[in-house]
Amino acid sequence: MPWLQLHIQTEQQYVESLSDLLSKLGALSVTYQDAADQPLFEPPPGETPLWSDTLLTGLFDTNQDLDHIAAQIRHQASNQITAMRSEILEDKDWVREWMDNYHPLQFGDSLWIVPSHRAPPDPAATNILLDPGLAFGTGTHPTTAMCLTWLAGQDLRGQRVIDYGCGSGILAIAAAKLGADDIIAIDNDPQALLATQANAEKNTVTDYISCQGVQTPIDGECDLLLANILAGPLIQLAPLFASLVKTGGQLVLSGILPEQAEAVASAYLPWFDFEPTYQSDDWVRLSAQRNPQPPD
Asked: Rounded to an integer, what distance in angstroms lies between the CA atom of residue 276 and that of residue 36?
C-alpha cells in the first residue's frame, strides 16, 4: 500500500519538540535531513549533531487524515515551522529498488566494489564484496572513491595501515586485498566498527584487520594512514597523525571541500610533503609523504 509523508522544515532548536509531536500524532517514523546543504563535522562520541536548517519527515499510513494532522501541528507549533508540505509515497519493493541501482564500481585498473547480489565483472581482479548499510562508505561518494582510486595504484604488500574513521571498513578491506597484512580500523561509532568486522568477514580478511575506538591508544607507527573524515577533525588530528606515520610513510586525507584544502594542508606542513591536490566533483583528496622532521 502507499504511505503518506509530512515534511516540515524547521530550525535546529525545534527538531526534538516537533519530532515528539509527529510521533504523538501517529507518525510511524520520523527522519531528519539537511534542508540547506550544510556539511556536519564528525561528531564526538555520544553526540548527534543536527543541521541549523533541518527537514523532518513523518511517515503515516493511508488511514490517517494528514490535513487534520497538519492543522494540529500548525495550531500547536506554528512558530517552529518554516515550511510544511505533504505527499504520497508509493509502495515499492525497496530491497529490489537498491539492488537494481547498486552496481559494481571500478577503481583504477583492477579494483572493484561488488554488491553481493552481482557477479564480479572481472573475477581475476581485486574484488571487494560490499552492500549498502548503516555505516558510511560504499564507494559511491567522491570522498571514498578518490581514496579507493589512490589505493588501486599502490603496492601495499607487507605494509601496516591505519584507516582512521573506517565507516564500513571499505578502505581497510581494500588495503588488505591489496597486500597490507596489518591494518587498524578506527572509528568513534560502535556501529561502524561492527560493520567493518562484518564486512571483513564477508571478504575473508579478518586475520589482517583489527578494530578499535578512537580512545584506544595506537601502538607503533604505520606505513600508510588513511583518513576519510572532514576538514575540522583532520586539522585537529594533525599532530596525532604525524606521530603515527613513519618517516617516508604515506598519508591520504579526504572529506575536504576545495576551499578547506589549504587550511588542512597547512596543519600538516611541519611534518609532511604534499603531492598535487586531486579533486572530484566538490571534494578534494590530499596525499603526502612523511618527512624526517620529528613531531613536537
From this structure: 31
* Alpha carbon distance 62, 3 (integer Å): 6
CA pair distance 216, 196, nearest whole angstrom: 17
Answer for the pair 41, 232: CB distance below 8 angstroms, yes or no. yes
CA 39, distance to chain mean position in Å, is 12
Q: Which amino acid is at 118?
A: R
Q: Which domains does the chain have, with CATH numbers?
A: 3-91 (3.30.70.120), 96-290 (3.40.50.150)
Cell digits of residue 146: 578518490
Top pLDDT among 195 and 49 is at: 195
Whether residue 159 contacts residue 181, with contact meaning beta carbons closer than 8 Å, is answered with: yes
pLDDT digits (tens, 9 = 90+) for 127-146: 988 876 544 566 678 899 99
The DSSP secondary structure of 44-86, one letter per residue, reads PTT-----SEEEEEEEEETTS-HHHHHHHHHHHHGGG-SEEEE
Give the end-to-end CA distance of the chain in Å, rounded to a whole number: 63
List of residues 6+ apart from 113 with CB closer than 8 A: 104, 105, 107, 128, 130, 138, 139, 148, 170
